[in-house]
């Protein structure tokens, strides 16, 4: 197993540096810099703008700038935000918590609803559960997140006045748990509905595939009860692909949802990335990219370990049919 983990890490490291290089190059090709944006308002004269570009190293060649950034990264320094002058690590640390609260709540709620719904839809095809799962998948895949957010705000905030439409806490309030939950309901519901369709579909497909296996027919032939067949055999046999689908949502939890956070004014990683791109704060964009990339790689490594423990053929590098 140690050799298998080492082999996986050796493949992850070059991919990680390749991703950071691509993002760094794309940012450098984007028109305008933070110095240009500051000069557009007329508050910065040309000499000050040139001095700012020199201080930020924007006049250096692209390979030199990337080498400096990579050197700082290898020493645990993500740099400082060009816009605020604060540490990138500090800025990200303040936004991770709100993203975990919002996106984590939505994804966990989607998992709680999707797994039993997908299992029941596979267990009783063409039943009410199957129709309900199809309806949830249709809404999840067919309605964009921004449209769903606007609809919920219009109905529950503007028309009914039941729930707040923006921010994490009420302005001027003490920031109580109840206030947080009231602000969390609408954006978390959008994230839940957006992820529900894929989770229901994958759970249903995995259970249907398992139900066609020979050991399921053997369980029926033994005279086991339906509940025992469903929980002990069908669900357990489908657990690995279901777990794979669930774990792939972990990077989404860390990275946040850009659209939902912007519409609801939620101070998470998604809105931080959006603001950093608009302000050409490339140091902050690269910092968020590093966090998301590391989260993706850690999740994939965890999935590989799970598959390696479940099937020795994966550890030995042989194809699984």
Which key terms come to mind for this protein?
mainly alpha; single chain; 321 residues
Q: What does it look like?
A:
By secondary structure, the chain is mainly alpha-helical. Helix content is 76%, strand content 0%. The chain has helices at residues 2-29, 34-40, 46-56, 62-74, 88-123, 128-142, 145-159, 177-211, 214-221, 226-237, 239-247, 250-255, 258-264, 269-278, 282-310, 312-315. The model has no long low-confidence stretch (mean pLDDT 81). InterPro entries: BPD_transp_1_N, MetI-like, MetI-like_sf. This is ABC transporter permease. It comes from Candidatus Flavonifractor intestinipullorum. Residues 96-303 form the ABC transmembrane type-1 domain.
Indicate the topology.
Layout: H1 2-29, H2 34-40, H3 46-56, H4 62-74, H5 88-123, H6 128-142, H7 145-159, H8 177-211, H9 214-221, H10 226-237, H11 239-247, H12 250-255, H13 258-264, H14 269-278, H15 282-310, H16 312-315
Helix pairs in contact: 1-15, 2-3, 5-6, 5-8, 5-15, 6-8, 7-8, 7-13, 8-10, 8-11, 9-10, 13-14, 14-15
Family: Belongs to the binding-protein-dependent transport system permease family.
Domain ABC transmembrane type-1: 96-303
Transmembrane segments: 9-30, 100-123, 135-160, 239-264, 284-309
Concise summary:
With 321 residues, the chain is mostly helical.
Distance between the termini: 21 Å
Sketch the major β-sheet: none
E-strand count? 0
Helix content: over 70%
Secondary-structure element series: HHHHHHHHHHHHHHHH
Shape: flat
Structural class by secondary-structure content: mainly alpha
Computed Rg: 24 Å
Put simply, the count of helices is 16
What's the mean pLDDT score? 81
Percent strand: under 5%
């Amino acid at each position: 197993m140690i050799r298998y983990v080492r082999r996986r890490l050796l493949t992850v490291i070059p991919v990680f540096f390749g991703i950071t290089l691509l993002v760094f190059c794309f940012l450098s090709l984007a028109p305008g810099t933070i110095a240009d944006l500051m000069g557009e308002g007329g508050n910065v004269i040309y000499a000050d703008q040139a001095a700012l570009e020199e201080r930020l190293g924007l006049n250096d060649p692209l390979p030199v700038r990337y080498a400096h950034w990579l050197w700082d990264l290898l020493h645990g320094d993500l740099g400082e935000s060009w816009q605020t002058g604060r540490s990138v690590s500090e800025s990200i640390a303040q936004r991770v918590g709100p993203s975990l609260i919002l996106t984590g709540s939505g994804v966990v709620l989607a998992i709680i609803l999707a797994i039993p719904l997908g299992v029941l839809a596979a267990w009783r095809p063409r039943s009410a559960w199957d129709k309900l799962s199809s309806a949830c998948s249709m809404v999840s895949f067919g309605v964009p997140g921004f449209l769903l957010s606007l609809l919920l705000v219009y109905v529950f905030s503007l028309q009914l006045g039941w729930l707040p439409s923006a921010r994490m806490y009420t302005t001027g309030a003490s920031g109580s748990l109840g206030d947080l939950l009231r602000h969390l309901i609408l954006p978390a519901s959008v994230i839940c509905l957006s992820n529900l369709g894929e989770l229901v579909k994958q759970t249903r497909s995995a259970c249907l595939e398992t139900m066609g296996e020979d050991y399921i027919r053997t369980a029926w032939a033994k005279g086991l009860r339906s509940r025992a067949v469903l929980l002990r055999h069908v669900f357990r046999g489908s657990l690995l692909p279901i777990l794979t689908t669930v774990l792939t949502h972990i990077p989404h939890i860390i990275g946040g949802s850009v659209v939902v956070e912007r519409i609801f004014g939620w101070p998470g990683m998604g809105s931080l990335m959006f603001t950093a791109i608009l302000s050409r704060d490339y140091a902050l964009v690269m910092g968020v990219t590093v966090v998301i990339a590391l989260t993706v790689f850690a999740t994939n490594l965890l999935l590989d370990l799970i598959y390696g423990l479940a099937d020795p053929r994966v550890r030995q590098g042989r194809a699984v049919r």
